[in-house]
Design a protein that fits this description.
Layout lengths: L2 H19 L7 H16 L4 H26 L3 H15 L2 H16 L3 H7 L13 H48 L11 H25 L3 H11 L8 H12 L3 E7 L2 E8 L10 H31 L1
Antiparallel strand pairs: 1-2
Helix pairs in contact: 1-4, 1-7, 1-11, 2-3, 2-7, 3-7, 4-7, 5-6, 5-7, 5-11, 7-8, 7-10, 7-11, 8-9, 8-10, 8-11, 9-10
Length: 313
């Protein structure tokens, strides 16, 4: 079976598996990778960029090599190759867990239980929930849904289309390492530099595709493109900026502004200044937009994989 068909069938099966099953409560492959990466960090950690780069190379490179070996070993069997791609896709995407967490917080806010929403928010993002009212929590959820649509779904599909199973596993490894060591804490300011920069590079194509698809799938394509063009570049993240700006324009809301991470206050630019303030019901609108973007990304990735094969032949 041709490689593009293996990817198409496997990626579709993996997304369906994520939709039906979500993430397991225990033993998730990404969690296993995280524990392994943590063990490597305990051995290698030095307050030095070079040692951090070695950590990134060992962990991300190991994931890519594992995917390549498995893909090559199963290549003679089309059924096994499709199954491997399906399992890898299911393991690296997290669309259903994202949706579940967002809707759980949304339901708590709908019934006025702000404390329950605050308790649940850390499962979705790193904001300080105690400083947020209901609308502030809703804004944080919408921003997290937008950013994680790129990180947890679209980016993985893009790299799966480019590199098959090694691309899928490599992208998730890089993204996980950024979450573990890429933040600017005193311990990881130097050590996590390589992981953070590699995540910026790996996330670049998926973020732009997510922004385009949000404009296509949203109710205000012109507003999405306008917000992306005018505001994305002012965001501190080169990849979250386009995604959040496009979602803001597509939903007709304002995102960004003052927020707090681990006691550190940040004043971020407002995205889509012409929009209205985020309200609780916008959480469900963002979730539905995220689902549409994910499905469109599957179609684009499958088409791109087929086009790459046709060009190579």
């Amino acid at each position: 079976m041709r490689a593009d068909r293996v990817f198409a069938y496997g990626a579709a099966a993996g997304l369906l598996g994520d939709l039906l099953l979500g993430d397991p409560r225990r033993g998730h492959p990404v969690a296993v990778f995280g524990r392994a990466a943590g063990a490597v960090e305990r051995v290698l950690w030095r307050d030095h960029r070079g040692w951090g780069a070695l950590h990134t190379a060992v962990c991300a490179g190991g994931a890519v090599v594992l995917g390549a070996v498995a893909q090559k070993a199963l290549r003679p069997s089309p059924a096994a190759s499709v199954a491997l791609t399906g399992v890898a896709t299911w393991a690296v995407v997290g669309g259903t867990s994202l949706v579940r967490e967002a809707r759980t917080i949304g339901r708590a806010l709908e019934v006025g239980d702000v404390e329950a929403a605050r308790e649940r928010l850390p499962h979705l993002c790193g904001r300080d929930p105690q400083a947020l009212d209901a609308d502030g929590i809703a804004r944080a959820v919408v921003e997290s849904v937008a950013e994680n649509t790129s990180d947890a779904v679209v980016g993985a599909l893009v790299w799966g289309a480019v590199g098959g199973v090694p691309g899928l596993l490599g992208f998730r490894a890089v993204n996980t390492l950024d979450a573990m060591v890429g933040h600017k804490s005193p311990r990881h300011r130097r050590y996590g530099w390589a992981s953070a920069r590699l995540d910026d590079v790996a996330g670049w194509p998926g973020a732009r595709l997510t922004a385009v698809l949000a404009a296509v799938a949203g109710s205000d394509p012109r507003g999405a493109l306008r917000a992306w063009r005018s505001d994305a570049g002012r965001h501190p993240s080169p990849n979250a900026g386009p995604v959040e700006a496009s979602f803001a324009g597509a939903l007709g809301v304002r995102l960004g502004g003052t927020l707090s991470y681990a006691g550190r206050v940040e004043h971020r630019p407002v995205l889509n200044q012409e929009g209205r303030s985020v309200e609780v019901q916008d959480i469900e609108r963002a979730v539905r937009l995220s689902r549409r973007v994910g499905l469109l990304a599957l179609g684009v990735s499958v088409t791109a994989r087929a086009a790459l094969r046709a060009r190579a032949s």
